[in-house]
Amino acid sequence: MADPFATPVAGRLAGKVALVTGAGSVGPGWGNGRAVAVRFAQEGAIVHGLDLDSARLRETAEKVEAAGGR
Question: What are phi and psi of 68, to 5 degrees?
């Protein structure tokens, strides 16, 4: 049985699709949605974000792309 506390494997989400709601975040800085979207992109996921605030969602999309996501 695998150790559940072992260090995660980089790229473990490669080729997977992630749908992140609230990806635009509320207020300045990093909210949970933005942080999750960028982290999933760093792990190789294809990230689709949703948010009511399209301007903040665009900011998150730029960060996702900068992290190597699409």
Answer: 95, 5
Q: Which amino acid type is present at position 68?
A: G
In angstroms, the CA 57 to CA 68 distance is 17
Whether the full predicted model's pTM is greater than 0.90, yes or no, is no
Our CA angle for 35, 7, 12, nearest 5°, is 60
- Domain segments of the chain as ranges: 17-66
Count of C-beta atoms within a 10 Å radius of residue 30: 13
Residue 45 contacts residue 69 (beta carbons within 8 Å): yes
| Side chain identity, residue 62 | E
The predicted-structure confidence for 15-42, as pLDDT tens digits, reads as follows 999 999 999 988 788 899 999 999 999 9
